[in-house]
Structure formats: C-alpha cells, structure tokens
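Thread title: Can someone regenerate the structure for this chain?

I was given the following input by a collaborator and told the matching structure tokens would be attached. They weren't. Posting the sequence so someone can regenerate them.
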Amino acid sequence: MAEHLVIREVDFRLSRCRSSVPRARAALRAKLGEWRADQSVSGDGELVLSELVTNAVRVPVPGGRMVGVRIECRGRGELLRLEVSDAGAGRPEVRRPGELDRDGRGLLLVEALAHRWGVDERRAGIGKTVWAELLAPGAATGPAEAQIAAVSVQPGQCVRVWGGWRMVRAVRSERYASGGLAVVIVLDDGGPALRLHAAESLTVRTTGPTGRAGAS
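Best answer:
Regenerated them for you:
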C-alpha cells in the first residue's frame, strides 16, 4: 500500500527587480520554518532559489510581467521542489564560463546542488518554468509511490500506466461538453496522451534517482 505523504506548498509572485531575490530567500526560509521542515535543505535551497529568481528577473518579458515562484515541501523536507516561472522566451542552458568570466555560473550551481532540475513550458500563458528538486541528506532516492488525483499530476513525475512507469512531459486541462474538468497528460515516450477526469486517481512515483524509470 502506498505511503501517505504530507505535501505543503505555497505560490507567490515577485516584481522583476533585484530586491526580489532576497525576498524569495526569506519566503523560503520562513515557510520551511513554519512547516518544521528538515533545515538541512534550507541553505542549499536558498542558493538554488536565488539563482533561479536572478535568472528570471533578468529575462526580457512582454509588458513587464511578474515572476512566479512555487515552493513545495514533501514530508519533513525530505524533498524540496522549487519552481520559478517567467514570460520570457528561450530555455536556460548550463554554461561553462572561463576563469576570468564573472557571470554564467548560476545554473552550474543549481546543477551541483539539486538532485535534479529542468525546464517546462508554463501551464498557462507564455514563457517557461525552471524547477529544481533537493533531497535532504539521508533521504531515500529510491521510488516512493503515492495515489493522487489526475489534476495534481505535474510534468517531470512518473505515472504508472499500461503496466509500467512513464514520465509526464506536459499536463493541460480541458472542459468536457458536460462542463466537467478533464486532464490531458502527455507522456515522454511519445505514446498516446491520457485523458482523464480531474478527480481520477493515478499512482505517481514521487522521487527517484533521475526521475526516469523503465517499465516493470
């Protein structure tokens, strides 16, 4: 039987200015304290969030749109997921700056500190979401499973379908003709998308060594 996981999360928006970086760090510190999370992930989490927000506020965007931040904490901090969204074009890439270069090391730091990270299209609107996940020292890196509603599934998770594990590439919502909410889940293997009622239950793999898993 799947273990019940406590998931805490918060979403907020920030202005596109330098002062938003320390504000994001302070918000993360406060929330982890409020949730009584394992503080072993707090320091690295603040550094990673700082780099993601710094990149987001520098990206040119139409109409001066704000930066979105989402913090998710599972258990007592065994897994911390940080998401930063902006309306800018393009996808960030890890650079390998020379010894004399003063910039360009942000994503190198994220890559070094995070258990895994990636970039997804924003679920609503233009732009992208850059995310990173950190594990507390000693947290299990093997698969943990949970039953969640289809509407809660996120890109980057693995779902158990057709007798195996498949990674989720994208998720979008649609309306049935009757007015109910449907969730369309696009899988990374190029197979047919899943179209489910929003409340339908799915088994997801919440953590893993690389986020990918073969069929079993």
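The first strand starts at residue 7 and ends at 14.
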